[in-house]
Queue: 4 jobs
Job 1
Amino acid sequence: MKRLLLHALNSVVIVALVLWVLFPFYWAVVNSLKAPVDVHTPGFIPFVQFRVTWQNWREELFGGADILSRVRNSLFIALGSSLLALALGAPAGYGLARYRYRWKLLRWENRDILLWFLSQRILPPVVTVIPFILLSVKLGLYDTILGLTLAHATFTLPFAVLIVRDAFADLPSEIEESALVDGCSPFGAFRRVALPLVLPALVAALLICFAFSWNEFLFALKLTQSHALTVPYYIATSEHSQGERFWVVSIRTLIAVVPPGVLALFAQRYILRGLTLGAVKG
């Protein structure tokens, strides 16, 4: 009896938490299907408490709102910055896991370098906005997809380094030593042996970098003007002179959720294993 009550209590808690998480999405769907005059009236049951209309979706997707171009910009920027961060972070993480570095001038070792990478995430991004603006203008990268991609890659790079470094640290070095004995170069052992073995960690790092880049708003606000606008910036411009257009915010929010959700759905089998690689490393 006690076990049955405990199981029932756990089920109730799980259902309550799931409803708590899903309710904002349901609220967005409901508001996107309401006519503007019905948005501020209470009602969450379609066809019963309010009349369902697809006019909001038609106007947003085909009425010249340009949401699809913003999604395209965000996809290019998020994928480009994630791949760039991973391309730089994987060799850096491998080097920190396999070799010992010592900078006598500052008495730095591997752990100090890792702490420096971690400090890049602790540092408030707003501190670096002005230098990024000056650099992008000087290099002709202001309001370009390339400029925003490079900016996003700088603050997602620490995630790639830290996640991949822990995965390589958990990987037995004897595997690469065997490859070296068989005639592989150090880079060949890294590329042909080590990288395929930590593929889950690479995918997990890519997804995390993609999520942070996709949701980033500050740099999109300050480093763009018209051509390289992203989805978060576009959602923030939903306000009208008549007030907040909740039906527009809902539609744009639901559209923004789709790409990272689909990406995570197809790569979910890699996420848990990738994030737990190296978790029990002594």
Job 2
Amino acid sequence: MGLQKNAEDKIITIPNLLSMFRIVLIVPMVIFFVYKNYIGAVLCIVISGLSDMFDGMIARRFNQISKLGKMLDPIADKLTLVAVIICIGILIPNVRLLVIILAAKDILMLLGGAYLIHRSITPPAAKWYGKIATVVFYISVTTVVAIEVFGGAAMAAQLSVLITVLLTITSCVMVFALVMYAILFFQLLKNN
């Protein structure tokens, strides 16, 4: 195990380690959330978002794009997003419909990626629309959780329209990304 000759076949790279770190970071994030340590949970979300941003930059800048990384990065994204979405649905019950939409989108994308791998088709690297959806998600989630946690119930009630708008925009951006990835998914199936 270790570094192979072909850059695409590398297993141990900084971006791959960052993706694995994001997967591991889900556990403390959920534990913090369950024990109502929202600052710790938000900190985990922010660290996850930053490491997601840096793993792609490092992969491109230092030619560390690998087959494993192309699979690990979206898996880490989807697992993190689903965990955060479920936590938000528990924290803010009136947004459960949006939570279901977001969770369904990420579960469908995970299943699609698994199906491609099953068919011996390498899933594509994350695309710009997926990255934008992830950034919008992190900004919205951090804002919503900050309003709920630091503003209390009164502020959350006053800003419920803002919370709904943020989560609706996030849902629209995520559904757009899902549609774009679905088109790419069917193109890959057709070409193989």
Job 3
Amino acid sequence: MVEIEYRKTRIKLGDTDLVYEPAEDSFLLADAALKEAKSGMHILEIGTGSGFVSAVLLANLKEIRLVATEINPHAARCAKANTIEVIRTDLFKGLKPRSQETRFDLILFNPPYLPTSKEEKVPGWLNYAFDGGISGRETLNLFLGEVKDYLKPGGEILALISSITGLDAVKEKMIDLGFAVDVVARKKVSFEELMVVRGKLL
């Protein structure tokens, strides 16, 4: 089994033909999350994949409560092998909205952000890791439309996007939904710039 080490933790990757292998976007979100998260927080990661980002947080922060969701059954099994408490569901569907147990201080999401036509879809479960719809923002917009129901007052989200996703469109939608928005991390990678956008609930 393939394993990688990052920031005091070792991650089992399983079958990378079925599970997204952590890459520059994963590392950028993990680093940004480590800066934002604090001991005692209740944290949710949507679409955890292998469990990489959540595992990094658990290895480096004390007394956090963390749960994750993942739609891909192969990725969910991989995350569980990395000791992540994971619910196999699509985005927030397996969580009860507006309940005390599912209100979080911090919610993380590395959505599929590649603009994808029907002809460009990847066969099988791995498509969920890449396919952002025609705009590259379809899954992110679904997430943003629901996320407030799962945040504590003053809670924050961290979302990984790409310059090809359209930063201005993402910021405009988040502001319209009642978030204060800023970019907390950036990294240039080949043809795109990766960014972590923070939204703080006003």
Job 4
Amino acid sequence: MTDAEFFDACKKVLKRELVPAMGCTEPIAIAYASALARDALGEEVVSAEAVLSRNIIKNVKSVIVPHTGGLKGIAAAIAVGVVAGVAEKKLEAISDVTQEQIDALPEYMERVPVAIFCSESSFVFDLTVVLRGAKHWSRVRIVGKHTNVVSVERDGLSLHSCEIAETSERSDAVLTVEGILRFASQLSEEEGAELFGDQIELNMRIAEEGLRGDYGANIGKTLLSVGGTYCKERAYAAAASDARMSGCELPVVINSGSGNQGITSSVPVIVYARSHGISDLMLYRALAVSNLVTIHLKTGIGTLSAYCGAIAAGVGCAAGIAFLVDNTFRTVAHTIVNAVAINSGVICDGAKPSCAAKIASAIDAGLLGMEMILHGNQFYGGDGIVRKGVENTIAAIGCLAHDGMDGTDREIIRLMTEDC
């Protein structure tokens, strides 16, 4: 691959992964599927079914769905998608919901029963929504990632379909830490503004809202009151998650299908850059590093797993800040290795207010990893799961999370949903 082809490939990855979403992405994907199914049905809904992979159930169970008046869970996500969803907006399908529609949700949920089933699919991300009317029925299935619609049916007739095999896993094998740094160093200010302008605006807006309001466990506010090293970087990111996990009706730019990962990989870098008077160009380049390192780690881990995605994003944001401090391969690579050695193994037990605390911990571990190498200290190959070379260590994290923690994932979900 030539340098020009690699540069274009990195831009393509960023444009695909950094997209706006309203609310936690798993319930929003259900709402999106429900809006598609409603449009396909073409008549009043009298009952609904959802067949969901276990990780989707895990991530929808405890998080507030925006624009529902504080409702949680699968039935609420289906209801708001049917009542108010705009399918064309995909992960922003419920961004424009009227108060009248919100007020109608309790009556709708009382009237329309929802049956929920666990999928036995081999795909970690697999959701199907079935809507039934008096005369017809419709079915929508999404596999692999949050907007990847593989089938839309009405009365068994296909309105849309694509091969599931093409969607099972995202492949970003083109990425390496060395290549990411090369891409970032070549990025122009104009290209950076195009790629990261929305991420800076939207993710900082929800961070500021999280610090103003009363959301979740108020992790961000707590961090600001306590203080400490890199306090603002951790507090702003945690506050954004405080707000998002508690139903704040502001969108965020996601990373690897996750709003919390989008927040964690961007907000600390933005706060650090602004606190240190760093130019827009260098901020864009640092965001290229932080976002692409997060994506690189998540490629091996997978879209959903027992491994907390905020940990990968905390590594990414530390790599971005390390790039601003000393943009050498050695510093960035050892920051990544140190960081994953510190905090790998933090579990994902679904989307909920405590995600904000895990984000704060992930950022703290990442920045400790950076400070270690800046002071001449590092972990070496053979220290636990650390292998010689940053790419080998990243590959080991992928194996740990994707394969090694599969049993952990099943036990987490069993504990959360005993009847699943």
